[in-house]
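Collaborator request, handled under Task 6.
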Amino acid sequence: GILERLDDGEVVIGDGSFLITLEKRGYVKVGLWTPEAVVEHPDAVRQLHMEFLRAGSNVMQTFTFSASEDNMESKWEAVNAEACDLAREVADKGDALVAGGICQTSVYKQHKDEGRIKKLFRQQLEVFARKNVDFLIAEYFEHVEEAVWAVEVLKELGKPVAVTMCIGPEGDMHDVTPGECAVKLGKAGANIIGVNCRFGPWTSLRTIKLMKEGLGAEGLKAHLMIQSLGFHTPDCVKGGFVDLPEYPFALEPRVATRWDIQKYAREAYNLGVRYIGGCCGFEPYHIRAIAEELAPERGFLPPASEKHDSWGSGLNMHTKPWIRARARREYWENLLPASGRPFCPSLSKPDI
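Structure tokens returned to the collaborator:
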């Protein structure tokens, strides 16, 4: 189980981007961001699960982001059920667990009706219970109040509960600090607490550090989890990358390299985070980078590393000496990659 692995000090590697990746591949529509692809194109979802598993993921998270009744009307139940089946099918091909996932609702900002919102969470939970997922994840919450409600509902099943907020160092949208958010979630009963989405690796690392400090100050214990964007976002304000002018169709220049992600994984590990994965923009090769960086601690490499030598060492076989010279860690760690885009700024001004 997830808690047994984390209690034993194991590194659990999450998966990565589904919505943005499947949009690029032509299976999801921007704007709605709902996961109807699990019933319309199950092979595409299965393939992406397989790629993350092969890259080193220990968790197959159900593709159920925004799959609640308020977003999908009558389709929500079939989508949740099929998503569980696809995740289980792939997880059983490796040493992976299935996590049933819910996210913030579209109605919280309108009325904050606790009973109505908890009913939406409970509907998805009933499917997860029927499909016997291994644990539960409440992710992508920008208001800690709603995240607490999610945790309270998910705890009803009696399985481990992870919760992540899509916040940066400034805290949630009601100005609750990351440390205070973590404390509220810990007191609500979450077993695993952290951040996901909205911000890139370095911003997310600062946020998780604040959460850890908040939990420590209150004497609360919880495992830490981080699943950042696969994009660089130093210019983001409180709302994160959704406020950048490049969102969502021109984010490619911001994509993190595999070497960036190796550094992210190491810094997360050094902070005491043992559940490390990614969110939007995190491709399978990014997950492989986490698995390769933390291979000494885990004791093995993922199957995808059979075709990838550490720190570019495979370039030793190249015929050109200047390319062979790149087959070393120092080269890639210190590289300042160019974008190849004349006159483009390095940062943007958020629209908000």
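The cover message to the collaborator said: "Strands lie at 12-13, 59-61, 97-103, 135-141, 161-165, 192-196, 223-228, 275-278. Residues 114-131 form the longest helix (18 residues). Please let us know whether this matches your experimental observations."
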